[in-house]
Each structure stands twice: as structure tokens, then as C-alpha cells.
UniProtKB/TrEMBL annotation:
Residues annotated as domain Outer membrane protein beta-barrel: 10-251
Signal peptide limits: 1-23
GO cellular component, one term: cell outer membrane
Family per record: Belongs to the OmpW/AlkL family.
Protein name: OmpW family protein
Gene3D superfamilies the UniProt entry points to: 2.40.160.20
Keywords: Cell outer membrane, Membrane, Signal
Highest taxon, organism lineage: Bacteria
InterPro entries, per database record: Beta-barrel_OMP, OMP-like, OMP/PagP_B-barrel, OMPW
Record bears the keyword Signal: yes
Subcellular location(s) per record: Cell outer membrane
Amino acid sequence: MKNFVRGALAALVVGSVGAAAQAADLPSYKAPPPPPPPAFTWTGLYGGVNIGYAFGDNSRETGGLGYLTGIPVVGAAPVTLAPFGSTWSVGQNLHGIAGGAQLGYNYQFNPWLVLGAEADIQATDAVSHSRTAIGLADATGTHLQTMNSTKNVDWFGTVRGRVGFTLPSMPNLMVFGTGGFAYGQVVNNVGFGDVFPAQGLSAIGNGYYDNTKVGWTAGGGIEWSPSMFPSWSLKAEYLYVDLGSTTANSVPLNALPGVAAGIPVFAATHNSPTRFQVVRAGINWHFDPFAVVAPSSASGALPSVKGPPPAFVDSYQPFQVRLKVAGVIPLNGHGTVYDSGSGYPGLGSIGVGTGLTGYNGVIAGASTNTSSAIIPMLDVAYYLTKNWAIEAICCVAPHHIQGTGTISSDFARAWLFPPSIMAQYHFTNIGAFQPYVGVGVNFTTFWNTRVNNDTWSIPFAPGSPLAGAQGVLANFQYATVAPSWGPVGQIGFDYMLNDHWGVNVDFKYIGLHPMVHSTVVSFAPVAGAGLSAIYIPVKVSLPINPVVISAGLTYRFGGSLLSPLF
């Protein structure tokens, strides 16, 4: 019995040792290491904001003044003597703050080359003042010619290509060059004058230019993306912008019938190049709405990303941002013009002598048109549920107000800030196509309102006291636009590419009916007294009521943070 127990124990020990030896011969199993982080790349879309300073390049403004008629000189043989003219060349000091937004796309071809395109739009208060005074002595005596110019660049934008260079050792730092197309709004207002002290005469004129100019731009900069925040980048950039030259030709304000005899009439012109430099800093957010994120498999290996992207899942995302381009089209920009001085004997009136102002103050045959505009637009929304949302709409828009009929002139221009608050219902659970409707309220304020100093002639109605004359010379001097409330209606749709990204198309109608208040200076002919200047208050009831058509990108997020309210 003892021998049997000893044999069994010996066999158990030998078997255990053999099994351990066999296990030692098997390869050990280790969990696969985590996948390395993705390599940094500049490829993808980006958008951001910037702020900087614009300053001129020392370009000089040039011009000249010459006379069309002379001054009668009484003597043994009466003659008419033409005064001397003059030319000038003066410096300009264009400068001001510039800030705006940019949107672009990069594609990184290899570890050191990045090609891309970028568009930006900038608001600016850049302004330049120049003046000159030239004393002359000729057969008419001594006289002093003056020129005063004010030029503004209200906004500008660029569409540029970019070529960037990186180092494999620092892939998140890029040095780039850029260049392309530039455009911007340039306004140049010039006053001309010539004073003859001995004769007690003054000749005056005004020139005005207000239009969108096109040109070119070139520059460069540096952009850096922090390692901890690879979706963000900071940039510093320099641009040189050339918008060409503007020419303001004088309209003589003493060239109508009824001007006192002996005042000479001149023609003058002023040429101003618009070239400036911009130094700015900005921040960009980089994103790729078409990227497919491949989750890891159960075994730890990365699955293939080939094949179709995952199906759209209509999940709740409480926050939404849209970046869009919009066209603003006034449906009814024809305004009614009122002569506010007609009922007050102490005020000037267009109706005095013209016969144009009716009993209710409406100026017969006078109206206005309002221009269309193409603008960037930002929408921000919060979804109370998957269907109900509250949206805030923000944009700025420039508009021209053009006088027509009996006040035919380039009346005024203004910037509009028309924020709206909307309540929306979104139709969901029907797939990636998601239509919606909305109603809300709009409050529009106006700033940087400027009259264009365009000179126009008020005709005389048949049967009026001055029906035989050619007209009253007039000029808008001042204008303000009162804020306006109005309803908003909206219809549109999102087509969602995935849970977060989509494209949007939207149509809005905005009830916008402001009142414009202006002052007109009118040089009315008075028998035996030449021109008599009167200041006339004018108001314009301006029903704009625009349709706003927009399209752009939609981004939704925050589904892991909040739940629907109900």
C-alpha cells in the first residue's frame, strides 16, 4: 500500500513538471498597443475672425482746376478775363482699424507643401484727408484756390490663393504666401473753391465718387496650431491692397440761370489712388465635415475605412451654428418723399416757386429706390426639442438709397444691422432632408449714414411762379434713418451629411419700413439777388421689405451635454 501511494505521488509530480515545461514553451499573449495618434495635417476647411490695422502707402493725389467763363472787367473797352487755373499734387494719410472674417480650404500634398484658397470680408473705418490752397495773381487780381478731399474705405474683401511651407519636424507651423483678387467700397468727397477778394466773388464746386472698386492683393504670414488644440490655429498676416484710382469731377454750384452776373464757372477734377497695407492677427477653427471616423474593433485592430460612410442617425443635438452667404433683395424700395418745410413759413420749402409740393407735403414725382446686397450671415440656434428651436440671426448689410423723378440723385448710403429672433418648427424623422418653418421679429438699426452730396436740379411745374426758369439747384446735406421694427417669416431646409454637419438653404421675408430724415440745401434763383440758399427739411417713408435668400453650412453639437426640455 505504501508503495502504491508513493508511486502515485511521483507520477503527479512528474506530470505537473511536464505540464509547466510545456506551458513555458507556448508563446505569451499581450494586448495590442493602442493605435498612434493621427499625424497632424493642414488639410480641410477652416473659418475664423481677424482684427488689424490698415494704413496707406504714401500714394499722392493729383488734380487741377480751369475756368470755362471769365470775369467781366469794365473799362474803356469792356473785356472778359479768364482767371488762371492750377494743378496740385498732395499726399494722403489713409488709416484705420480693419476687422472681419475669413473662410478657406487647405490641402497638404506632402510633409512640406500646403496649397489652399481663402476668401475674407473686412469692415473698416479707414479715412484719408487731404487739402491744398494755391494763391494766384493775374489780370483779374489776386485769388485763392482751395481743394479739400475726404476719402473713406468702408469695407473690402479678397479672394486669394495660398502656398504654405512646413517642416516635418514642426508640422503644425506653416509659413505662407498669398495673393489674388481684391474689391472694396471707396467714397471720395471733394470740395473746390476760388475766392476773389477784390471783386467780392466766390466760385464753388463739388465732386463726389462712391462705388465698389476692384483690384489685386498680395502678402504673406505665419500660422501655428497648438499641439493641445489641433483644431485651432493662430495667424499673423500682412496684405498689400491696390483698389486702383477714383476720379471726382466738379459740379459747379454757380452755373445755373439766376446766378449773379460776373461769377466765373470752372471745371475741376481730383484723382486719388487707393492703395493700403494691412497688418492683422486672426484665429481659425479647422474642420472636415466629410471625414469618416472609424471606431476601433473589439479585437483592438482598426477596421478598414473603405466603403460607404455610416448611415445618418437623427440624434438630438441642442446647439446649432450656421455660416452662410445671403442675398438681400428689396421687394418695395420705392419711398414717398415729404417736404417737411411746406407747412411752416419759417422753414424753406421745395414747394416755394416750384409748384411740386401738394397740400399734404408730398413732393410730386419724387421717389427712391433701395439697392440689393450680398452679405455674410451668422445664425445661432438652441433646440428645445428635436422639433422646436429658437434662432438668433445676425448680419450687417450696406445699402444705397437712390432718388428718382423730381429728386433724381444719388441720395444716401447706410449700413444696416438687422438682428432677428425666430421661433422654428423642424420636421424630423424623415431622414437627412429636414425642412422647417419659422416666425419672428426683426429690429433694424442704421449707422454710418452718409448723404452722397450729389447735386440735382428740381424742375418747375407748369404754372408755377418760376415755370420759365430751368430749375432749382439742390444738394442733400445730412440724413439719418430711424430704427425699424417688423415681422419676419421664414421657410428653409437642412440636408444633414451626418449627425453634426449639413448644408442649409433658407428664405426669409422681413417687414422693414424705416423713415429717413434729411436736410436739403437749395439755391433758388431770386430776381435781382442771384442765388438764395435755403435749407429744407425732407423726410422719406421708405418701405424696403426685403426677401433674404441664403445658403451655407450647418453644424450641430452638444448632444452629450443636454437632453430635450420636453
